[in-house]
Design a protein that fits this description.
CATH topology of chain A: Beta-carbonic Anhydrase, Chain A
Radius of gyration of chain A: 18 Å
CATH class of chain A: Alpha Beta
CATH superfamily of chain A: Carbonic anhydrase
Distance between the termini of chain A: 44 Å
Strand order of the largest sheet of chain A: 2-1-3-4-5
Structural class of chain A: alpha/beta
Largest interface: A-B, 88 and 88 residues
Number of domains of chain A: 1
Shape of chain A: globular
Oligomer: homodimer
């Protein structure tokens, strides 16, 4: 069974008992979360979010430089006034270099991506510090509270590393 | 109470009964979801995802052009072989133009972002078609099944619009 068929079956059940149709567009808790796309991290469960609470931006590594477009929209048009950045242990971004992946893409896909960075990192804690700092220094981001966390995929625990 | 303090309190509860520490890095269901950051959409709940199942990429609008870096990492390094794109009704991206937001940023933040696109759209269904098409045509994306959906924030229902 394809994932899409499974999604459609699961969604029928979800929609059958759905009672969130009254929620408004702006996030109720006025917060935006930037987190890694990692399959083991469910930001809603791990942070206690319900539908309607928060914008959740996710990408490989939870890199904030790629989240700037979304954060400007979140703050300027939808009123969020706090940011949380969540990276995690055992992240795939710790396992390769740009040179590695560029070489793999050239070999397997025949494409030259030497101009492109996949934004890997070699120090997890520093990656959170860097990603919070990028937001704090950006003239496009409001001067709001920004907290940086590491989520431990073995324990489910969140460790605050920058506030 | 700040959102970060609420996240930390909620996470203590989550971690106390956490039993997912055995999960591996590659997504178990070999699928990557690209969805909007909208607060009302919980992709895990709406699609029936558990921790460990799928990469979830989210940004303002669920725009795939901004997801390419993450998709290449997901496919080339972590073995995903299916993609689902999820946009939704009442999306914020339907409510503004680049000119509107550029003007607001200039006025409120004093910054010139005339070179930048915030990737809004005016036709929801077409936005899904466009975003699936970008992936299908990209030489950096494997020839895998890609399904495009619209999620209805009033009913919780997923409508397939491109497969």
């Amino acid at each position: 069974m394809s994932a899409s068929a499974e999604f459609e079956a699961a969604n029928e059940k979800y929609a059958a008992s759905f009672n969130k149709g009254h929620l408004q567009l702006p996030p109720g808790r006025k917060v935006v979360v930037v987190a890694c796309m990692d399959a083991r991290l469910d930001p809603a469960k791990a942070l206690g979010l319900n539908e309607g609470d928060a914008h959740v931006i996710r990408n490989a590594g939870g890199r904030t430089v790629e989240a700037l477009r979304s954060i400007v929209i979140s703050q300027q048009l939808l009123g969020t006034r706090e940011i949380a950045v969540v990276h995690h242990t055992d992240c795939g971004m710790l396992t390769f270099s740009d040179a590695d992946l560029r070489s793999k893409v050239r070999q397997d896909l025949g494409e030259d991506v030497d101009h492109f960075s996949f934004l890997p990192f070699s120090d997890l804690k520093q990656s959170v510090v860097d990603d919070v700092s990028i937001l704090k220094k950006s003239p496009l981001v409001l001067d709001v509270s920004i907290t940086g966390y590491i989520y431990d995929v073995k324990t489910g625990k969140l460790e605050k590393v920058y506030a």
